[in-house]
Amino acid sequence: KAKLSRHGRAFLFTPSLRMQAVARRLYAMELHRAVDQGEFLLYYQPQVNLNTGALVGAEALLRWHHPARGVLTPISFIAALESGPLAAVVGSWVLDEACAQAAYWRRHGATGFRIGVNLFEAQFSVGDLVQEVMEVLARHGLPAEALELEITENIALDNDEIVLETLRKLKDNGVGIAFDDFGTGYASLSLLKTYPITRIKVDRSFVQGMLDHKQDDSVVSATLDIAHGFDLHTIAEGIENKGQCRYLKQKCCEEGQGYLFGKPMPASQFASLIGMKMASAA
Ligand code: C2E
Ligand code: MG
Ligand code: MG
Ligand code: MG
């Protein structure tokens, strides 16, 4: 909807506030329908051990199978979801669905398989997250070590006390806590000291720039050094080529995730990777 201004430059047509409000209400109604009709689904992206190339787990990633627009990635709906009342509901569903799937795969040959689940901030303020997680694990017969919850810096910064206390209990119960998108926020370093983290996920923006830009390289190198110094596990996101993979391995990054190993895919497709040793990561 670009219009040309008198100076010939394109500018975006700004809908009136009333139209924006209408659009937001429509989208909120669509999200309700999506929950009611079960239009959400999970894709799974492989996580591999960089030394052996073995498949070690997967990150569960939310998708919306929209009846008119097809399968949507979070970029087109996550802001709307997080600003409305449904984030906690969808988050609970994601946790349950991902754990059910992981338990199934572990029973069918993928022993030791781990599942990564991203948390919404709202999940910390509605109900008791610790109890919910422990019930889900028990229901599906999944050991706590097989679950890794992913949190971002904005979750850690708000609701400080509740989040801290909740994560501490989860970690004490054996659940893994990964610090997602590490390095993209302002307080990553200070949070590391206080938060009960078990793994750092090196953000893909740095991984993708590290071979060409020394700034990105220095963030990746420093992050891995810090992780080693804090005795934390490591995984790098967004590995797209063998050069990046080799470099990270050289820097003693334990695990990797990215298009090189596999894009996020439906469970049915992911199942064919299981039991099959993945091609060498090197
Ligand atoms: P994230 O947790 O950092 O997830 C990794 C994102 O990087 C995924 O995007 C994945 O598809 C993408 N990615 C992985 N490897 C590569 C690569 O090699 N190249 C490129 N270009 N991209 C790669 P996706 O699935 O679109 O998810 C985006 C974000 O939405 C996630 O970032 C996460 O913050 C959020 N999200 C997704 N699912 C959930 C969920 O179930 N709950 C919550 N709370 N947030 C979710
Ligand atoms: Mg994540
Ligand atoms: Mg991430
Ligand atoms: Mg990210």
Automatic annotation (TrEMBL):
Residues 24-278 form the EAL domain. This is PAS domain S-box-containing protein/diguanylate cyclase (GGDEF) domain-containing protein. It comes from Methylophilus rhizosphaerae. The chain holds residues 445 to 726 of 726 of the full protein.
